[in-house]
Amino acid sequence: MADKTIVFPSGVTVTLFPTPPEAVNPLTIDEEARLRFGLPRRPSDPASVAQWEKLMGQPVRLIEPVFRRNPHRIHGPLLPKDGETPWSGAIIPAPFGSTFESASGQWIIPAVTPGTASGECDIAVWVGIDGAFLPSADVFQAGIGATVANGQAAIYFAWWEWYPEPEVQIVNFPVAPGHGMLCQLTVTSNRSGNIFLRNLTTGQAAAFQITDPNTTALLGNSAEWIVERPTVNNVISILPDYGRVDFSNVAAATHVGITGITNAVILRETSPDSPTLASLNGVVYLSWRGVDNNLLSIACSTDNGLSFGQKYISTETSSDSPVLCAHNGKLMIAWKGVDNTKLSVATVALAGTAPTGIVNKAILNETSPDGPTLASLNGVLYMSWRGVDNNLLSVASSTDSFHQNEQKFVSTETSSDAPVLCAHNGNLVIAWKGVDNTKLSVASVALSGNAPTGIVNKAISKETSPDGPTLASLNGVLYMSWRGVDNNLLSVASSTDNFHQNEQKFVSTETTSDAPVLCANNGSLIIAWKGVDNTSLTVATVNEAGGALQPIDLRSSTTRAIEEQGAIVSTPTIDSPTSLTCTYTGAHLPSIVDPAISKETSPDGPTLASLNGVLYMSWRGVDNNLLSVASSTDNFHQTEQKFVSTETSSDAPVLCAHNGTLMIAWKGVDNTKLSVATVALAGNAPTGIVNKAILNETSPDGPTLASLNGVLYMSWRGVDNNLLSVASSTDNFHQNEQKFVSTETSSDAPVLCAHNGNLFIAWKGVDNAQLSVAMVALAGNAVTGIVNKVILGETSLDRPALASMADQLILSWRGLVNNQLSVAISNDQGRTFGDKLISTETSSDAPALCANSGSLVIAWKGVDNTKLTVATVVS
């Protein structure tokens, strides 16, 4: 038994297994000890045993792990991101109809260096289950991580994650380059799994179980062995130079049998006992006795137990749960009396599918302290019960539903609870619990013709319960369910040999204070039970995975390569059925090249816009605040046509290409009023600022502009409240304006950008320097909100810059401490930004970005001077 649990704020629970005082050898201790210490179980099939022995062949020194959540580090599922693939390695989908039960592998921890990258680099090497294919939204994973930056020593650590829980570091599990690592993940239920991490060099190991009772469900639809660029502070990290990682002894096994209890429906019906189920003509029938009146009720479901209706409450009463059975096209019911122990059998009258009565009752001379059980085989109805004074199990058969015809056999087997019957593969099977113990037994009922003559081929199961079990047969497999002795947990097991040797068990998190009941219907297995602390009845589906338990072959896997900006930087190679290699192939990061230092100067950063393949730049003068606009066909290297206007501003203006024209906006010098106008052009040359509209809107900074679907949008921050506003106009803000004032605040002007048919906004915080990116919600042309906000880990003293090019959203800013210009790229609509470039270029104000003729152009002003510079960003 586990001796300690840790509950995280999200509700995720970690169960720590006991740690033995000395090293243990997994090969020599028994299965009970392996389970007690959380070690991987010995497989039952010979093919998997050899692999398990190879992985478990050395003594291990188990530690009690100490955890630290790293909420800023996320791994998560593989999302489709063009040019931003964060995984490199092998992915295997679960075979059709089955799920992965385990995944394991080992590798040597690589030494990492920053390579050609500047800034922090991060890597994760791990084994995982789920996350590669929909509908899986989780990843159950564990491995090692490393982070490194220029001039700093690399940091190495072990971690686990069950997304959406963030990364959790194991702080007392030291790892280092050159150490061998082993990781094995084992699915214990759809809500829990075991993690076993072992440092093959130091001999230390950690074993623990993760349980998520809330939102996460293990599907087991993929297994993977991955080198990854993790997401750090909402940005996909840069991959360091790791050389190579060789995964060896890679293994995964598919799960056969029960995988979970799902689609649970808590009914309004209540009973002091668990109910009974039966299937007839594709309809599920449920019967129970009332809480206060002992009346027998019957209801039906035509949607496989998702809902029950057409309830009939009879006048028949019982002091125990009744039993239903489909027999010769009819629905039969049996029960014991309230004031007596006599057993009764009757037919449930049906009108269509609806129960309308209990008719043709036969009161037997047989008696029992419990309700009986029924089964139908080859047109004969069978009933079993335990004796009143002797606990002996009896089985009887009848060809007339026990009205006159009965052939009875009284066995020497005894039970302290009612037995259960089940027709299975042409035979009659019986199960029960012992009198002096809680062990469950399964056996066959021997028949001579229709007459029962004995209980034979008994298998005494290792499973125990305070009540008798329940049985069902589906697709040639026998299923048994029961509740636990100490924990009331519902368990379901399957067997192909009537539980003599073959058994595959699933322990659910559902609980009951009475025995559950099983029923096969329309190819599904249905289970029902009553609650522990209440009398509510629940019906659910038992999920099952078929197929043979067998290890995987990597040669049939899907491989992924890490991409940064569309360039492969980590390449996987399948070496054998159980090994693969991931190789670092070099960083391909953005860089700022070909700068043109203009003769123009400004106290602020400039603004850029592209129209008809021509690059335009605007700025305010150093000494006179006059707005200037210039055009260039070579990014201001040699060609420039400049216009100096009489308009003035106390902050940088903004340009925007809109409906084939060039728009400009600014704030006044002696006031905070915002103005929007058109830049008059003669060919490519700017010749004036015309058609000015002075708005009633005010701001301490210049505004921002963007054009989307023929509508001009403007955003600014408020004068007294710092609130971000966004407005739209179809006439360049002369008369038509629809404004939205958000609750978001900023200490500098925001920035707008049209990208992939959406409008994005970015800004910096008021009380902090953190940058945020969000989407502007639109209803038609009208702005209705700022949504899907992502607060980045990046910081700046000024607003950032945004641009859209080739389906990528690009962000740029100057550093908070060092004034260095940074560029990062998003391939997922602004949810994350990666491929960050920290350049050596510096500025004392925000930069400007613009896509022009298939290139990304950046402009800025100097730190120690007011000169403006224009350059190209390349990858």
How would you describe this protein?
With 875 residues, the protein is mainly β. 2% of the residues lie in helices and 58% in strands. It contains two helices and 70 strands. Strands 1, 2, 3, 7, 12, 13, 14, 18, 44, 45 and 46 form an eleven-stranded mixed β-sheet that branches. It has an eight-stranded antiparallel β-sheet with strand order 4-11-10-9-8-15-6-43, with no helix packed on it. Strand 62 and strand 63 form a beta hairpin. The longest helix is centred in the first third of the chain and has 10 residues, at 46-55. It is elongated. The two termini are 55 Å apart. The mean pLDDT is 88.
Mind telling me the C-alpha Rg?
Answer: 36 Å
Question: Helix content range of the residues, please?
Answer: under 10%
- Rounded mean pLDDT score: 88
SS element count, helices: 2
Structural class label: mainly beta
How many beta-strand elements? 70
First-last Cα distance: 55 Å
Low-confidence stretches: none
How much of the sequence is in beta strands?
A: over 45%
Largest sheet: 11 strands, mixed
Q: Sum up the overall morphology in one term.
A: elongated
